[in-house]
UniProtKB/TrEMBL annotation:
The keyword Transmembrane does not apply. Belongs to the aldo/keto reductase family. The lineage of its organism: Eukaryota, Fungi, Dikarya, Ascomycota, Saccharomycotina. The keyword Cytoplasm does not apply. It catalyses: xylitol + NAD(+) = D-xylose + NADH + H(+); xylitol + NADP(+) = D-xylose + NADPH + H(+). Keywords: Carbohydrate metabolism, Oxidoreductase, Xylose metabolism. InterPro entries: AKR, AKR2B1, Aldo/ket_reductase_CS, NAD(P)_OxRdtase_dom_sf, NADP_OxRdtase_dom. It is an enzyme of class 1 (oxidoreductase). SUPFAM superfamilies: NAD(P)-linked oxidoreductase (SSF51430). Its EC number is 1.1.1.307. Residues 15-299 form the NADP-dependent oxidoreductase domain. This is D-xylose reductase [NAD(P)H].
Length: 317
């Protein structure tokens, strides 16, 4: 199953997330994911594993498992490269590391312009801005960055462009000046943070939505997030487990199907081949209206990925 983007391309409804894939194992995980049927791979400059992800992709293509045009490869422009002169520089680094000629989707990772860090100084730079652990920012309007993204589409190096971690107000403003509208909005989305008004708003404007961290706190426990550690896991939530038992599926499958049934794409990651296959096989059952209503009641507006925690950056206030 796929979503038809406003750019004219089709994006798979279920993909494989590359966040937290270690360099040591990434190539094999990507190869095996392609082998069992994944076609969308969601990466980012900040994940620091493009070289290994690219090796897995190219090995699968070389072995005849898949052709490049059957894959949908996503990456994200990191905060350090928002200045228009640096947008294409960042893309060229991504393409070189992945070993591909174009991206299917390139997203602005956060609506935050950090100070530029040359690639040969530190890559990926993360929060480093050239001054130890201190944050520094550049006065780059989002529309300026977006116009540079549009040029990537015109060059043929990117097929679709979009945004990630944007609020409705920022998207509303961006659309006023965009020549090419965002094709996709990627957001943190799980039963504890449902953002239904945002989803309804952008979908009504022809922008597709991709959910990350579909399992809620589970994605952040290994990062030693106190907020995640203190939050009850969705895998053991009474509502989720009851629905899973009723359909004979796992709680993870319920969480993913809850999104895809509402035309929200998902990008789960699993290092376990059996669970990875389960995550891919979620569209052969349907949640009832009552079950959807029960899940809707779990919303707490609880966000685990918030730049306010980095340096009091107020993008979600």
């Amino acid at each position: 199953m796929s979503i038809k983007l406003n750019s004219g391309y089709a994006m798979p409804l279920v993909g494989f997330g590359c966040w937290k894939l270690t360099a040591k194992d990434a190539s094999d995980h990507i190869y095996n994911a392609i082998k069992i049927g994944y076609r969308l791979f969601d990466g980012a400059q900040d994940y620091g594993n493009d070289v290994e992800v690219g090796k897995g992709i190219r090995r699968a293509i070389s072995d005849g498992l898949v052709s490049r045009d059957e894959l949908f490869i996503t990456s994200k422009l990191w905060n350090s490269y928002h200045a228009p002169a640096n947008v294409e520089v960042a893309l060229e680094k991504v393409l070189a590391d992945l070993g591909v000629e174009y991206l299917d989707l390139f997203l602005i990772h956060f609506p935050i312009a950090q100070k530029f860090v040359p690639i040969d100084e530190k890559y990926p730079p993360g929060f480093y801005c050239g001054d130890g652990d201190k944050f520094h920012f550049e006065n780059v309007p989002l529309l300026d960055t977006w116009k540079a993204m549009e040029k990537l589409v015109e060059s043929g190096k990117v097929r679709s462009i979009g945004v990630s971690n944007f609020s409705g107000a920022l998207i509303y403003d961006l659309l006023r000046g965009a020549t090419i509208p965002p094709a996709v909005l990627q957001i943190e989305h799980h039963p504890y943070l449902q953002q239904q008004r945002l989803i309804e708003s952008v979908q009504s404007r022809g922008i597709a939505v991709t959910a990350y961290s579909s399992f809620g706190p589970q994605s952040f426990i290994e990062l030693e997030s106190k907020r995640a550690i203190d939050t009850p896991t969705l895998f053991e939530n009474d509502v989720i487990t009851k629905i899973a038992q009723a359909h004979g599926v796992s709680p993870a499958q319920v969480l993913l199907r809850w999104a895809t049934q509402r035309d929200v794409a998902v990008i789960p990651k699993s290092n376990n081949p059996d669970r990875a296959l389960q995550n891919l096989s979620i569209n052969d059952f349907k949640l009832s209206d009552q079950e959807l209503e029960e899940i809707a009641k779990l919303d707490q507006g609880l966000r685990f990925n918030d730049p306010w925690d980095w340096d009091h950056i107020p993008i979600f206030i």
